[in-house]
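To whoever picks this up:

The parser on our side crashed when reading a file containing two proteins. I've narrowed it down to the boundary between the first structure block and the second sequence. Both blocks are reproduced below exactly, byte for byte. First block:
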Amino acid sequence: MEWLDRLYLFTVLDAVGLGLLIVSWIGSTIIIENAPKSHRSTSEIMAGYRRDWMRTFVDRDPRIFDSQIIASLRQGTAFFASASMIAIGGGFALLGNAERLRGVAQDLTLESDPIFLLEVKLLVLLLFAANAFLKFVWSHRLFGYCSVIMAAVPNDPTDPKALPIALQAGEINITAARGYNRGLRSVYFGIASSAWLLGAEPLILASLVTLLVILRREFASKSRHVLLNGAPDAET
């Protein structure tokens, strides 16, 4: 079967579902990271708290508490990076045994897609898992950079270098958290992409539900309301 012939195996709904999935994934990141200051996302609100953390860090003695927080953040990124690796390995295992997956999908949908279609659908899921892995690994590394910069902050809070170095650590911390959140969104939409195995309609529904859940958590959740009470300014 030629590649052009294989493309005809996909329906218009498949194209709509895949397009909606990708647009929702990329669009949610753009909306969350570029929200107006009048209605900041939860992630941007937390960025202000991270900057305040570094200001407080300068005067804290001892600073063991701060090192423990960084260690816990690195553990979280390491856990999700490992989970993403397992998902990638499982995905490749399924690619080598797509016939069995075809039987499961047929049991659930009463339809039987060609093996090529199942492999493409699995590859989409694998791409999300791979992107999540890369984001988590980079976030883990940035949290490591942050811990080194924090260690370089002079013990004397009156030292003129103390606050500038601490603020540098804060910006690295924020960048690491941004990568971590992007990795999580890749996981969310990767899970949504698995609905494609059941058909185009489930993929469209899963993409919309995932997008709504993410936006609600960032802009309309109870935790965001709590964070807004006394939240620091975005760039101060």
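<<boundary where parser fails>>
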Amino acid sequence: MTLMMTLRYEDAAHRAVAWLLERRRPDDLACYYKSPAVLGLAGHPREARDVLDEAVAKFGTADGDFATAAGVKSHNAIFTEFWSYPNGWIALAAQRLGRFGVAQATYRHLLGYRGADGGFRSNPAAEPDVLTTAHIGLVALQLGDLDTARAAGRWLSRFLASGPERGQEFLLRANGTGALQVLSTGKPDQPYFMIGYPMAFLAKLHDATGSADALATAEAFADYALRCGENLRSCLFSHKVAWGAALLARATGSENYAELATDIAEHLLSLQSPDGSWSPDAPDHATFDDTAEIAHWLLEINAELPGLQKQ
């Protein structure tokens, strides 16, 4: 890979950020919850704090919640299943932006989704799943709660050891009902982000604690991703896999992970609209959501990969 390649990722991300800054946000949580993180990462802390403060005023509750089945204000139907997901994004951004009161209140709420075995649920009625456990585990790690982060990492290790790969399917949730339960190997447009988040969280947990088990589990998730072939590398929903692979490339020096990250990133660049957005023909809530998220991961990937380039 070359420095020019990763600079293209940065350029694409900043064009997306310009799109986010220029558009009026519809009154929908999905148009807000990822933007503070990417605006701050892209060098717009004042605007990031403004969007965060507006989200708190519009959607936040006194107990640090932003999405519940009864009260979520969004056209994104997945929030009726994954209540904790937008809360995690807001907690991460608030901590990075110095809004520590928001971060702590939201994190206290998120701890209510924790199971006795260290896994985290997408909502109180669900069983723990790999994305939610990794997502809230990363919030715990960023807020310095290493005990909770380690417990989440151990849950992911046990889950993977239980053999979630069953023929042409990869289970994503521990024995329960709900959306996004399986990946179907060999089919296009699968929710690959569900396995990308564990890759990334576990790589960061290894960096923070030196846990060999965390790194081995991250690589085991990555090995499955590598076996998914072209369907994964040419899918809009693989953005978190590219992030996780970039972190693993940094941690291990493996060119296989670097290649996986860049293949996905290049595909994402091919899908960007001339105006800087992603999913421009989708409803507003999906366009804002996809544009903020993909820009965020391109900046993260850009930060991890240049040090691996061959001199």
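After patching the parser it read the second block fine. The chain is about 60% helix and 5% strand. The chain has one domain: 3-164+191-304.
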